[in-house]
Protein backbone atom coordinates (compact mmCIF):
# COMPACT_ATOMS: atom_id res chain seq x y z
CA UNK A 1 0.00 0.00 0.00
CA UNK A 2 1.32 3.41 -1.00
CA UNK A 3 0.27 6.61 0.72
CA UNK A 4 3.09 8.77 -0.56
CA UNK A 5 1.87 11.81 -2.50
CA UNK A 6 2.52 11.77 -6.22
CA UNK A 7 2.38 14.62 -8.72
CA UNK A 8 1.17 14.58 -12.31
CA UNK A 9 2.25 17.56 -14.47
CA UNK A 10 -0.24 18.13 -17.28
CA UNK A 11 1.38 18.18 -20.70
CA UNK A 12 -0.76 21.05 -22.01
CA UNK A 13 -2.30 24.21 -20.54
CA UNK A 14 -5.74 23.60 -19.06
CA UNK A 15 -8.58 25.56 -20.74
CA UNK A 16 -10.82 27.20 -18.14
CA UNK A 17 -14.59 27.48 -18.22
CA UNK A 18 -14.44 31.19 -17.41
CA UNK A 19 -12.04 31.78 -20.30
CA UNK A 20 -8.30 31.69 -20.72
CA UNK A 21 -6.10 28.84 -19.59
CA UNK A 22 -3.98 27.70 -16.67
CA UNK A 23 -0.37 26.96 -17.55
CA UNK A 24 1.99 24.51 -15.89
CA UNK A 25 -0.74 22.59 -14.09
CA UNK A 26 0.23 19.86 -11.67
CA UNK A 27 -2.06 17.54 -9.76
CA UNK A 28 -1.08 16.04 -6.41
CA UNK A 29 -2.68 12.72 -5.55
CA UNK A 30 -2.50 9.68 -3.31
CA UNK A 31 -3.25 6.06 -4.09
CA UNK A 32 -3.76 3.24 -1.61
CA UNK A 33 -4.09 -0.49 -2.11
CA UNK A 34 -3.62 -2.49 -5.27
CA UNK A 35 -5.51 -2.48 -8.55
CA UNK A 36 -6.85 -6.00 -9.05
CA UNK A 37 -6.48 -8.03 -12.23
CA UNK A 38 -9.96 -7.13 -13.43
CA UNK A 39 -9.26 -3.44 -12.69
CA UNK A 40 -12.73 -3.11 -11.19
CA UNK A 41 -11.93 -2.26 -7.55
CA UNK A 42 -11.33 1.50 -7.91
CA UNK A 43 -12.77 3.94 -5.35
CA UNK A 44 -12.22 7.63 -6.13
CA UNK A 45 -12.72 9.97 -3.16
CA UNK A 46 -13.31 13.68 -3.83
CA UNK A 47 -12.33 15.92 -0.92
CA UNK A 48 -14.10 18.91 0.60
CA UNK A 49 -13.05 22.56 0.85
CA UNK A 50 -9.91 22.55 2.98
CA UNK A 51 -9.02 18.85 2.89
CA UNK A 52 -6.19 17.23 0.97
CA UNK A 53 -5.47 14.15 -1.12
CA UNK A 54 -4.66 11.95 1.89
CA UNK A 55 -8.18 10.63 2.42
CA UNK A 56 -7.07 8.19 5.12
CA UNK A 57 -6.09 11.17 7.29
CA UNK A 58 -9.40 13.06 7.13
CA UNK A 59 -12.05 10.34 6.62
CA UNK A 60 -11.06 7.74 9.24
CA UNK A 61 -13.80 5.29 10.04
CA UNK A 62 -14.76 5.14 6.36
CA UNK A 63 -11.34 4.88 4.68
CA UNK A 64 -8.52 2.88 6.21
CA UNK A 65 -7.44 -0.51 7.47
CA UNK A 66 -10.48 -2.30 8.88
CA UNK A 67 -12.85 0.44 7.65
CA UNK A 68 -15.56 0.16 5.02
CA UNK A 69 -13.20 1.14 2.20
CA UNK A 70 -10.16 -0.87 3.22
CA UNK A 71 -7.02 -0.55 1.04
CA UNK A 72 -6.63 -4.31 1.44
CA UNK A 73 -9.69 -4.67 -0.80
CA UNK A 74 -9.83 -1.51 -2.86
CA UNK A 75 -7.58 0.64 -5.02
CA UNK A 76 -8.33 4.07 -3.61
CA UNK A 77 -7.49 7.33 -5.38
CA UNK A 78 -7.81 10.83 -3.94
CA UNK A 79 -6.49 13.91 -5.74
CA UNK A 80 -6.04 17.44 -4.46
CA UNK A 81 -8.18 19.97 -6.34
CA UNK A 82 -6.78 22.87 -8.33
CA UNK A 83 -6.75 26.08 -6.33
CA UNK A 84 -5.86 24.31 -3.10
CA UNK A 85 -2.55 24.48 -1.24
CA UNK A 86 -1.76 20.79 -0.83
CA UNK A 87 0.29 20.13 -3.93
CA UNK A 88 -1.97 20.85 -6.86
CA UNK A 89 -1.58 24.14 -8.73
CA UNK A 90 -3.04 27.02 -6.76
CA UNK A 91 -2.60 30.69 -5.83
CA UNK A 92 0.70 30.02 -4.03
CA UNK A 93 2.20 28.04 -6.93
CA UNK A 94 4.77 29.92 -9.06
CA UNK A 95 3.29 30.14 -12.55
CA UNK A 96 6.70 29.62 -14.15
CA UNK A 97 10.31 29.21 -13.01
CA UNK A 98 11.61 32.37 -11.31
CA UNK A 99 8.11 33.88 -11.34
CA UNK A 100 6.13 34.84 -8.25
CA UNK A 101 2.84 33.11 -7.38
CA UNK A 102 -0.34 34.88 -8.52
CA UNK A 103 -1.89 35.08 -5.03
CA UNK A 104 -5.14 37.09 -5.36
CA UNK A 105 -4.72 37.29 -9.14
CA UNK A 106 -5.07 33.52 -9.53
CA UNK A 107 -7.71 32.88 -12.21
CA UNK A 108 -11.33 32.10 -11.40
CA UNK A 109 -12.02 28.37 -11.56
CA UNK A 110 -15.19 26.27 -11.58
CA UNK A 111 -16.03 22.71 -10.54
CA UNK A 112 -15.86 21.75 -14.21
CA UNK A 113 -12.22 22.83 -14.29
CA UNK A 114 -11.48 20.61 -11.28
CA UNK A 115 -13.16 17.72 -13.05
CA UNK A 116 -11.26 18.37 -16.29
CA UNK A 117 -7.95 18.19 -14.42
CA UNK A 118 -8.83 15.01 -12.54
CA UNK A 119 -10.16 13.45 -15.73
CA UNK A 120 -6.65 13.78 -17.13
CA UNK A 121 -5.31 12.07 -14.01
CA UNK A 122 -7.81 9.23 -14.44
CA UNK A 123 -6.64 8.70 -17.99
CA UNK A 124 -3.00 8.88 -16.91
CA UNK A 125 -3.66 6.12 -14.36
CA UNK A 126 -5.32 4.01 -17.07
CA UNK A 127 -8.57 3.64 -15.15
CA UNK A 128 -11.30 2.99 -17.69
CA UNK A 129 -13.93 2.23 -15.04
CA UNK A 130 -14.43 3.60 -11.53
CA UNK A 131 -16.40 1.32 -9.22
CA UNK A 132 -17.45 4.22 -6.97
CA UNK A 133 -16.84 7.95 -6.90
CA UNK A 134 -17.74 9.45 -3.51
CA UNK A 135 -17.68 12.98 -2.15
CA UNK A 136 -19.31 15.34 0.32
CA UNK A 137 -19.86 19.10 0.13
CA UNK A 138 -17.45 20.49 -2.52
CA UNK A 139 -16.32 16.90 -3.11
CA UNK A 140 -19.90 15.94 -3.83
CA UNK A 141 -20.23 18.82 -6.26
CA UNK A 142 -17.19 17.50 -8.09
CA UNK A 143 -18.44 13.91 -8.02
CA UNK A 144 -21.86 14.70 -9.50
CA UNK A 145 -20.36 17.01 -12.14
CA UNK A 146 -17.91 14.28 -13.14
CA UNK A 147 -20.66 11.65 -13.35
CA UNK A 148 -22.58 13.93 -15.70
CA UNK A 149 -19.56 14.79 -17.86
CA UNK A 150 -18.32 11.17 -18.10
CA UNK A 151 -21.39 9.02 -17.44
CA UNK A 152 -19.94 5.78 -18.84
CA UNK A 153 -16.94 5.81 -16.48
CA UNK A 154 -18.66 5.47 -13.11
CA UNK A 155 -20.56 2.43 -11.89
CA UNK A 156 -21.62 3.92 -8.55
CA UNK A 157 -21.98 7.51 -7.35
CA UNK A 158 -22.22 8.42 -3.64
CA UNK A 159 -23.16 12.01 -2.80
CA UNK A 160 -23.19 13.34 0.76
CA UNK A 161 -24.40 16.73 1.98
CA UNK A 162 -24.06 18.38 -1.43
CA UNK A 163 -26.19 19.89 -4.18
CA UNK A 164 -26.77 20.34 -7.90
CA UNK A 165 -26.41 24.13 -7.74
CA UNK A 166 -24.95 26.21 -4.94
CA UNK A 167 -27.67 28.10 -3.12
CA UNK A 168 -27.96 31.86 -2.48
CA UNK A 169 -27.66 30.95 1.21
CA UNK A 170 -24.38 29.11 0.64
CA UNK A 171 -23.04 31.88 -1.58
CA UNK A 172 -23.91 34.45 1.08
CA UNK A 173 -21.99 32.48 3.72
CA UNK A 174 -18.99 32.31 1.39
CA UNK A 175 -19.15 36.01 0.62
CA UNK A 176 -19.23 36.86 4.32
CA UNK A 177 -16.05 34.82 4.74
CA UNK A 178 -14.38 36.49 1.75
CA UNK A 179 -15.27 39.91 3.14
CA UNK A 180 -13.55 38.98 6.39
CA UNK A 181 -10.42 37.87 4.51
CA UNK A 182 -10.34 40.90 2.25
CA UNK A 183 -10.74 43.23 5.24
CA UNK A 184 -7.32 42.01 6.39
CA UNK A 185 -4.98 44.67 5.00
CA UNK A 186 -2.26 42.08 4.32
CA UNK A 187 -4.41 40.20 1.79
CA UNK A 188 -4.03 42.70 -1.05
CA UNK A 189 -0.24 42.77 -0.65
CA UNK A 190 0.25 39.11 -1.51
CA UNK A 191 2.83 36.86 0.10
CA UNK A 192 2.30 33.42 1.64
CA UNK A 193 1.01 34.87 4.91
CA UNK A 194 -1.34 37.42 3.33
CA UNK A 195 -4.85 37.52 4.76
CA UNK A 196 -4.23 35.04 7.57
CA UNK A 197 -6.00 37.06 10.26
CA UNK A 198 -8.94 37.43 7.89
CA UNK A 199 -8.88 33.69 7.27
CA UNK A 200 -9.07 33.13 11.01
CA UNK A 201 -12.27 35.17 11.14
CA UNK A 202 -13.61 33.48 8.01
CA UNK A 203 -13.23 30.07 9.62
CA UNK A 204 -15.21 31.24 12.63
CA UNK A 205 -18.01 32.33 10.29
CA UNK A 206 -17.89 29.05 8.38
CA UNK A 207 -18.22 26.95 11.54
CA UNK A 208 -21.65 28.43 12.16
CA UNK A 209 -22.78 26.84 8.91
CA UNK A 210 -20.91 23.56 9.44
CA UNK A 211 -22.32 22.75 12.87
CA UNK A 212 -25.74 23.16 14.46
CA UNK A 213 -27.43 24.95 17.34
CA UNK A 214 -27.67 21.62 19.18
CA UNK A 215 -23.99 20.79 18.61
CA UNK A 216 -22.85 24.06 20.16
CA UNK A 217 -25.28 23.58 23.02
CA UNK A 218 -23.85 20.16 23.80
CA UNK A 219 -20.17 20.97 23.49
CA UNK A 220 -19.75 24.67 24.28
CA UNK A 221 -22.22 25.40 27.09
CA UNK A 222 -20.73 26.79 30.30
CA UNK A 223 -20.14 24.26 33.07
CA UNK A 224 -21.91 26.33 35.74
CA UNK A 225 -23.89 29.52 36.31
CA UNK A 226 -20.90 31.65 37.28
CA UNK A 227 -19.98 34.69 35.19
CA UNK A 228 -17.20 33.46 32.86
CA UNK A 229 -14.16 35.54 32.07
CA UNK A 230 -14.22 34.04 28.58
CA UNK A 231 -17.01 32.01 27.03
CA UNK A 232 -16.30 28.47 25.91
CA UNK A 233 -17.98 29.12 22.56
CA UNK A 234 -15.69 32.13 22.01
CA UNK A 235 -12.62 30.04 22.80
CA UNK A 236 -13.80 27.34 20.43
CA UNK A 237 -14.19 29.78 17.54
CA UNK A 238 -10.71 31.15 18.11
CA UNK A 239 -9.22 27.68 18.44
CA UNK A 240 -10.76 26.55 15.15
CA UNK A 241 -9.56 29.72 13.42
CA UNK A 242 -6.03 29.10 14.67
CA UNK A 243 -6.14 25.47 13.51
CA UNK A 244 -7.05 26.42 9.96
CA UNK A 245 -4.54 29.26 9.62
CA UNK A 246 -1.79 26.87 10.70
CA UNK A 247 -2.45 24.61 7.71
CA UNK A 248 -4.17 26.65 4.99
CA UNK A 249 -3.92 30.00 3.22
CA UNK A 250 -6.32 32.80 2.49
CA UNK A 251 -5.84 32.86 -1.29
CA UNK A 252 -6.74 29.20 -1.71
CA UNK A 253 -9.73 29.68 0.59
CA UNK A 254 -11.07 32.53 -1.54
CA UNK A 255 -10.43 30.59 -4.76
CA UNK A 256 -12.19 27.44 -3.54
CA UNK A 257 -15.16 29.32 -2.13
CA UNK A 258 -15.70 30.97 -5.53
CA UNK A 259 -15.56 27.50 -7.12
CA UNK A 260 -18.39 26.35 -4.87
CA UNK A 261 -20.44 29.43 -5.70
CA UNK A 262 -20.18 28.75 -9.45
CA UNK A 263 -21.39 25.15 -9.12
CA UNK A 264 -24.42 24.59 -11.37
CA UNK A 265 -24.73 21.26 -13.16
CA UNK A 266 -27.48 22.60 -15.42
CA UNK A 267 -25.42 25.41 -16.93
CA UNK A 268 -25.39 24.93 -20.70
CA UNK A 269 -27.16 21.58 -20.38
CA UNK A 270 -30.81 22.57 -20.45
CA UNK A 271 -31.22 22.93 -16.70
CA UNK A 272 -30.57 20.91 -13.56
CA UNK A 273 -33.09 18.15 -14.20
CA UNK A 274 -31.82 17.49 -17.72
CA UNK A 275 -28.21 17.43 -16.53
CA UNK A 276 -28.88 15.03 -13.65
CA UNK A 277 -30.80 12.82 -16.03
CA UNK A 278 -27.51 12.08 -17.82
CA UNK A 279 -26.10 10.20 -14.82
CA UNK A 280 -25.78 6.49 -15.55
CA UNK A 281 -24.15 5.43 -12.27
CA UNK A 282 -26.19 3.71 -9.61
CA UNK A 283 -26.49 6.53 -7.10
CA UNK A 284 -26.80 6.92 -3.32
CA UNK A 285 -27.63 10.39 -2.01
CA UNK A 286 -27.26 11.04 1.72
CA UNK A 287 -28.62 14.08 3.52
CA UNK A 288 -28.14 15.16 7.14
CA UNK A 289 -31.13 16.20 9.22
CA UNK A 290 -29.35 19.08 10.96
CA UNK A 291 -27.41 20.43 7.95
CA UNK A 292 -28.22 24.14 7.56
CA UNK A 293 -25.64 24.76 4.82
CA UNK A 294 -26.75 21.98 2.47
CA UNK A 295 -30.24 21.18 3.83
CA UNK A 296 -31.83 17.81 2.97
CA UNK A 297 -34.09 19.40 0.35
CA UNK A 298 -31.00 19.86 -1.83
CA UNK A 299 -30.13 16.17 -1.62
CA UNK A 300 -33.75 15.22 -2.23
CA UNK A 301 -33.63 17.23 -5.46
CA UNK A 302 -30.55 15.30 -6.57
CA UNK A 303 -32.20 11.97 -5.84
CA UNK A 304 -35.42 12.99 -7.55
CA UNK A 305 -33.72 13.73 -10.86
CA UNK A 306 -30.88 11.16 -10.96
CA UNK A 307 -32.38 8.04 -12.54
CA UNK A 308 -32.96 5.28 -9.97
CA UNK A 309 -31.18 7.10 -7.14
CA UNK A 310 -31.51 5.83 -3.58
CA UNK A 311 -32.04 8.56 -0.97
CA UNK A 312 -31.46 8.34 2.78
CA UNK A 313 -31.08 10.79 5.66
CA UNK A 314 -28.67 10.57 8.57
CA UNK A 315 -29.90 11.61 11.98
CA UNK A 316 -27.10 13.75 13.36
CA UNK A 317 -26.60 16.66 15.68
CA UNK A 318 -23.32 17.61 14.01
CA UNK A 319 -24.81 19.60 11.14
CA UNK A 320 -22.98 19.69 7.82
CA UNK A 321 -19.85 18.21 9.40
CA UNK A 322 -21.82 15.03 9.97
CA UNK A 323 -20.66 13.72 6.61
CA UNK A 324 -17.13 13.53 8.05
CA UNK A 325 -18.15 12.32 11.50
CA UNK A 326 -21.06 9.89 11.12
CA UNK A 327 -19.02 7.20 9.42
CA UNK A 328 -20.90 4.31 11.05
CA UNK A 329 -24.17 5.60 9.59
CA UNK A 330 -22.55 6.17 6.21
CA UNK A 331 -21.20 2.61 6.19
CA UNK A 332 -24.67 1.30 7.10
CA UNK A 333 -26.29 3.07 4.17
CA UNK A 334 -23.48 2.03 1.83
CA UNK A 335 -24.09 -1.60 2.79
CA UNK A 336 -27.79 -1.27 1.99
CA UNK A 337 -26.99 0.57 -1.24
CA UNK A 338 -24.56 -2.00 -2.59
CA UNK A 339 -26.86 -4.90 -1.66
CA UNK A 340 -29.68 -3.16 -3.53
CA UNK A 341 -27.37 -2.54 -6.50
CA UNK A 342 -26.29 -6.17 -6.72
CA UNK A 343 -29.92 -7.33 -6.42
CA UNK A 344 -30.82 -4.96 -9.21
From TrEMBL:
<feature type="binding site">
    <location>
        <position position="203"/>
    </location>
    <ligand>
        <name>substrate</name>
    </ligand>
</feature>
<feature type="active site">
    <location>
        <position position="320"/>
    </location>
</feature>
<comment type="pathway">
    <text>Amino-acid biosynthesis; L-methionine biosynthesis via de novo pathway; O-acetyl-L-homoserine from L-homoserine: step 1/1.</text>
</comment>
<feature type="active site">
    <location>
        <position position="291"/>
    </location>
</feature>
<comment type="function">
    <text>Transfers an acetyl group from acetyl-CoA to L-homoserine, forming acetyl-L-homoserine.</text>
</comment>
<dbReference type="GO" id="GO:0009092">
    <property type="term" value="P:homoserine metabolic process"/>
</dbReference>
<protein>
    <recommendedName>
        <fullName>Homoserine O-acetyltransferase</fullName>
        <ecNumber>2.3.1.31</ecNumber>
    </recommendedName>
</protein>
<comment type="subunit">
    <text>Homodimer.</text>
</comment>
<keyword id="KW-0028">Amino-acid biosynthesis</keyword>
<dbReference type="GO" id="GO:0009086">
    <property type="term" value="P:methionine biosynthetic process"/>
</dbReference>
<comment type="similarity">
    <text>Belongs to the AB hydrolase superfamily. MetX family.</text>
</comment>
<dbReference type="InterPro" id="IPR008220">
    <property type="entry name" value="HAT_MetX-like"/>
</dbReference>
<feature type="domain" description="AB hydrolase-1">
    <location>
        <begin position="46"/>
        <end position="324"/>
    </location>
</feature>
<keyword id="KW-0012">Acyltransferase</keyword>
<feature type="active site" description="Nucleophile">
    <location>
        <position position="137"/>
    </location>
</feature>
<feature type="binding site">
    <location>
        <position position="321"/>
    </location>
    <ligand>
        <name>substrate</name>
    </ligand>
</feature>
<dbReference type="InterPro" id="IPR029058">
    <property type="entry name" value="AB_hydrolase_fold"/>
</dbReference>
<dbReference type="InterPro" id="IPR000073">
    <property type="entry name" value="AB_hydrolase_1"/>
</dbReference>
<keyword id="KW-0486">Methionine biosynthesis</keyword>
<dbReference type="GO" id="GO:0005737">
    <property type="term" value="C:cytoplasm"/>
</dbReference>
<dbReference type="GO" id="GO:0004414">
    <property type="term" value="F:homoserine O-acetyltransferase activity"/>
</dbReference>
<keyword id="KW-0963">Cytoplasm</keyword>
<dbReference type="Pfam" id="PF00561">
    <property type="entry name" value="Abhydrolase_1"/>
</dbReference>
<keyword id="KW-0808">Transferase</keyword>
Amino acid sequence: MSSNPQVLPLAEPLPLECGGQLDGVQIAYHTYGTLNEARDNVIWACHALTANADVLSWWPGLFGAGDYFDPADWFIVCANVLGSCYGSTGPLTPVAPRHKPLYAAFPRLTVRDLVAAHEQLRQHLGLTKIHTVIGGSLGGQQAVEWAIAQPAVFEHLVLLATNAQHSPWGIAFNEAQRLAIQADCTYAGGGPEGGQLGLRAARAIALLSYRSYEAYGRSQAEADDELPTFHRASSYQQYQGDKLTARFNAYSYVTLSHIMDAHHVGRGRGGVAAALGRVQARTLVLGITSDVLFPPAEQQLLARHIPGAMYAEMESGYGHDGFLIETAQIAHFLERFYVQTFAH
